[in-house]
Amino acid sequence: MSNHLKIVETKMLAEKIFLVRLKSETIAKSAVPGQFINIKCCDGLDAFLRRPISILRTDPYEGTFDFVFMVKGKGTDILSRLKCDDFIDCMGPLGKGFTLPVKGEKVWVVGGGIGIFPLFFLLERSTDVQKTSFLGFRAKDSIVLQNEFERVSDKVIITTDDGSYGIHGLVTKPFLERLEREKPDKVYTCGPMPMIKSIAEICIERGIFCEVSMEQRMGCGIGACLVCACKVKHGDDFEYEHVCKDGPVFPAERLIF
Amino acid sequence: MSNHLKIVETKMLAEKIFLVRLKSETIAKSAVPGQFINIKCCDGLDAFLRRPISILRTDPYEGTFDFVFMVKGKGTDILSRLKCDDFIDCMGPLGKGFTLPVKGEKVWVVGGGIGIFPLFFLLERSTDVQKTSFLGFRAKDSIVLQNEFERVSDKVIITTDDGSYGIHGLVTKPFLERLEREKPDKVYTCGPMPMIKSIAEICIERGIFCEVSMEQRMGCGIGACLVCACKVKHGDDFEYEHVCKDGPVFPAERLIF
Amino acid sequence: MDLSVNIAGLRLKNPVIAASGTFGFGREYSEYFDLNKLGGISVKGLTLEPRKGNPPPRIAETPAGILNSVGLQNPGVHAFIEHEIPFIRKYDTAIIANVAANSVEEYCTMVEILSDADIDAIELNVSCPNVKQGCLLFGSTAQGILQVTSAVRKVCKKPLIVKLTPNVTDITEMAKAAEDAGADCVSLINTLLGMAIDIDSKKPVLANITGGLSGPAVKPVAVRMVYQVANSVKIPVIGMGGICNADDAIEFLLAGAQAIMVGTAGFVNPNVWVEVKEGIELYMENHGFRSVQEINEALIV
Amino acid sequence: MDLSVNIAGLRLKNPVIAASGTFGFGREYSEYFDLNKLGGISVKGLTLEPRKGNPPPRIAETPAGILNSVGLQNPGVHAFIEHEIPFIRKYDTAIIANVAANSVEEYCTMVEILSDADIDAIELNVSCPNVKQGCLLFGSTAQGILQVTSAVRKVCKKPLIVKLTPNVTDITEMAKAAEDAGADCVSLINTLLGMAIDIDSKKPVLANITGGLSGPAVKPVAVRMVYQVANSVKIPVIGMGGICNADDAIEFLLAGAQAIMVGTAGFVNPNVWVEVKEGIELYMENHGFRSVQEINEALIV
Ligand SMILES: Cc1cc2nc3c(=O)[nH]c(=O)nc-3n(C[C@H](O)[C@H](O)[C@H](O)COP(=O)(O)OP(=O)(O)OC[C@H]3O[C@@H](n4cnc5c(N)ncnc54)[C@H](O)[C@@H]3O)c2cc1C
Ligand SMILES: Cc1cc2nc3c(=O)[nH]c(=O)nc-3n(C[C@H](O)[C@H](O)[C@H](O)COP(=O)(O)OP(=O)(O)OC[C@H]3O[C@@H](n4cnc5c(N)ncnc54)[C@H](O)[C@@H]3O)c2cc1C
Ligand SMILES: Cc1cc2nc3c(=O)[nH]c(=O)nc-3n(C[C@H](O)[C@H](O)[C@H](O)COP(=O)(O)O)c2cc1C
Ligand SMILES: Cc1cc2nc3c(=O)[nH]c(=O)nc-3n(C[C@H](O)[C@H](O)[C@H](O)COP(=O)(O)O)c2cc1C
Ligand code: FES
Ligand code: FES
């Protein structure tokens, strides 16, 4: 549904990265990890289309949910100026979420940049499993939610592109290294295309369950306009499914990158 | 010049009618009655063009000036939401003002609706003259600045379309009646087309000096785009002059309605 | 006050139709509002065989508009008949089948098939800018429109709407060709061909390079074309292009459109179709119009 | 880093030109910024005799754009030469005379007169949508463009730019016709024909009923046409349509335009021309471009 939701908290987490908490009993109760909301950043024409943003976590008791976004262009810039008690026009929760792990499984999440947010929700909702987070950031000053990830993971491994914190290099590096030693039951990944592509390929090669949360430019956000195409296998052929409705989460082995 | 000016006061004068006071030493010092400013009501696309608004008065000592506007469409609606300490992007002062009366003259101003505002500035700047204001409003609850007009006029005659205050009917009625008894030296008028047309015609017929402040949709506001055409006499022929640069004030006898 | 319109045999309970390609087959938006409130639904452009469509990105945002390059992804006319019609038929709203093809024969085959299906009208899409061959080629010349429409007319047992592209020098010629060939109605405008470039990556935003522009940005062009066409043909006109609210819709009705379609605006406001319908009603009430036709005749020029 | 461009004999110190009809003869904006900063000025469209133009209202605001129907109000070519050239010449910027006429002979007469005047280039306006005859008629067919341009070419002693209308089915045909007829350059786009209706008064907003659409709304159409034309002719292309900032301008340069014109945006931001120029400089610096031509070749498709 489309609704004007009240902002109950906003917080700058790092330069250009903001957390927003919205009041919504419905979303707080019904959203599952991997789902997103579609936001009208302003009335009027300046950011005409809605912007899809993942749900970071919900608080069913308070009837609130959070999302975190990075200022990229016009829409997110406008969003970043909103304040407590302002309203945001949201549609959601939308899309299909992750397959939750089952008790006792070994879960690895691999996230890069803004891709870490849906993974947080997944970790928070995955109980009685052993959880490792591989998180890649640009640099030390762009690291966000480290404490939160540590709270919901058994281990958090951080990499930075420039080596200013944690392991220097891409997040695939420690992921591969660890794979030498142990094998997770489920891998979940979200982030930049090259990253998710190599994680997916590694997992497929080794027969590890892997789900990928995809990004694509959207129109309607609900499956009606068919713009948010995602190339997937279809027998010997391929077809385009749609990130907003069939995804954003897809099994790695279905994707054609 | 185009400048971002700070709002130092806003006031709702009546339903949908707002006064705004802006800080600007330049405009406060240089503006003359009849001139206008051209306002960008918001960043971005929602009210794309600037909106022309007359200067109501200036305070050269405080370095401020006022304007009053009625909410008509998108642009003025956005303006009406601005608050103290917000900034407004203004170009001005623009256009040619009224010919000020000289000492001892009998001055009549005839204004209707939003047309009264430039006349107020004229009255305030016209000293040592005898001043009568004929002001037409829609209804009692749309009357604004009555006290102010009384302060700067020797006599104020108010009409309302629906008779809810003052004289019932058009402002031309008391104007004509009074013309039976006395003859002003200078008449200035601004307001709805039928009103200014009949005032102009009456004055021309009787050989009374009359200046009219015209309205027209504008583009650039400075004379470059030629969209704000105003039909004026040109020998036996006519030509289009431009409200933003050649006006908004025109001698009545030059106008072709 | 009567909101219904009768467009060459197609009776709509109100003049508000969902535009083809923006509304799928109605399923998604049925969760957002009651489809019974729609005058009609023009379904996603159909082809004879299923089509995959173009690679993504398929959408770009532009000032007050969007570019799309979906490229007619659809399950094909047979799947439509089998799986989609039964769903839409549960609602009391007209079903308009939007048809695209690569050849005159293919258009005819499809129209023959659809003529026997449970739909209310056929909209010939001779104006899709996002597929490499066919389609737009027919719509870009009066000759092409004449040819396709005449052939289709012979086999078409439903009210026949021809959807025109705005990417032409003289839209009235296209409308006249459709009329001459026996179309019952023309609908316009399809999208304007456009392009957007990402200056950081130095690539076109759309994988397909160009795409179709829709949304508020195109409204003045659409209103002008509807006005011109309504004044040059006798068959009814369905107007669209950038309608975001009832005021926009009324502009089209005043320009001469007997009905209107709304597409892009629904992406932003899933309730837009209902709001447009209710706003038209209010306008009619306030201005004393008793029928949509009275609005069509009210423009003062 | 070199911002200068050489367009078929016309050297511009930078690629930013004020678009015809939006900048008068430069006098007004000279009070807002230093005209020396402009690559050039395309002056208000000139006719042989003075023209009064159309009745007001001549402008309507539309979503992210405007419609205008000025109708070529101008003092005539002689008054331009006598009164306006001397003023502009005080600045170090190219003077482009924008020329409109009703017949081939009139175009030739004007170009002959202007060839002897102190200007830097001639822009043939065969695309004004706001005058009843001539002008747009020539620009709407390849034949018309060929005819006017060939005739003018014979008498033209200045770099000759042909300004194209977007209201055509295939803009590349028009550009090719101009090239074949000897034009040194094409500029595009002029305005898209549009219309707006005031639903309260039930009248068109413009007294002229229709007008030309410009401003950000048209940018995707303009970028697409520039891209198509740059890929189909060898002569240089000047791009315009909706440029509001340097990013927009760079889209056109990437699409293949050697220079760009900015019009409507100046109404809102009188400093836009300077900002566009400085923004292009910054982009070149950040992306390591040493010349505008390098940007022209940088699009990845
Ligand atoms: C399912 C999904 C979940 C997402 N979750 C998050 C999140 O939790 N936090 C976060 O910061 N970002 C997230 N994104 C990316 C976010 O949608 C874009 O960064 C945002 O739309 C950019 O908008 P803008 O106005 O700032 O940028 P602009 O460049 O001005 O946007 C222009 C257009 O491009 C689209 N667009 C631009 N970048 C992207 C992108 N990467 N993905 C999809 N559309 C894009 C916009 O939606 C808009 O339509 C998610 C994207 C998807 C598809
Ligand atoms: C010289 C001059 C002085 C003015 N002084 C005042 C004043 O002191 N107070 C006041 O309330 N109004 C004044 N107006 C009228 C004011 O400009 C319009 O009411 C305002 O532009 C409407 O903008 P909008 O966005 O609310 O309406 P919209 O209808 O959304 O505007 C759409 C477009 O039409 C133009 N437009 C609409 N109505 C008018 C109009 N009557 N005149 C000119 N352009 C119009 C707008 O500028 C805009 O470009 C003046 C107009 C002019 C020309
Ligand atoms: C994503 C998208 C897909 C479209 N697909 C089709 C289509 O399949 N068939 C068709 O005739 N028109 C199609 N159109 C055009 C619309 O039906 C409509 O003509 C156009 O978008 C203008 O209306 P609007 O501005 O209200 O969207 C599509 C438009 C969009 C935005
Ligand atoms: C008010 C106005 C007047 C114009 N007059 C002319 C003209 O006389 N000759 C011409 O070739 N183009 C004229 N144009 C078109 C512009 O030069 C330009 O092609 C068009 O506006 C697109 O650019 P823009 O979006 O930057 O304004 C005019 C445009 C406007 C807005
Ligand atoms: S955004 Fe419309 S189908 Fe996905
Ligand atoms: S508004 Fe441009 S000339 Fe008056």
Task: Describe the overall structure.
The complex is a heterotetramer, with two copies of chain A (257 residues) and two copies of chain C (301 residues). In chain A, β1 (2-14) and β2 form a beta hairpin. Chain A has 257 residues and is α/β, with parallel strands linked by helices. The mean pLDDT of chain A is 96. Chain A has six helices and 16 strands. Chain A is globular. Chain C is of the alpha/beta class. Chain C has a single domain (5-53, 71-193, 215-296), classed as Alpha-Beta Barrel (TIM Barrel), CATH 3.20.20.70. Chain C is globular, with a radius of gyration of 18 Å. The model of chain C has no long low-confidence stretch (mean pLDDT 96). Chains in contact: A-B, A-C, B-D, C-D. The interface between C and D is large, with 47 and 47 residues. The structure holds flavin-adenine dinucleotide (FAD) (2 copies), flavin mononucleotide (2 copies) and FE2/S2 (inorganic) cluster (FES) (2 copies).
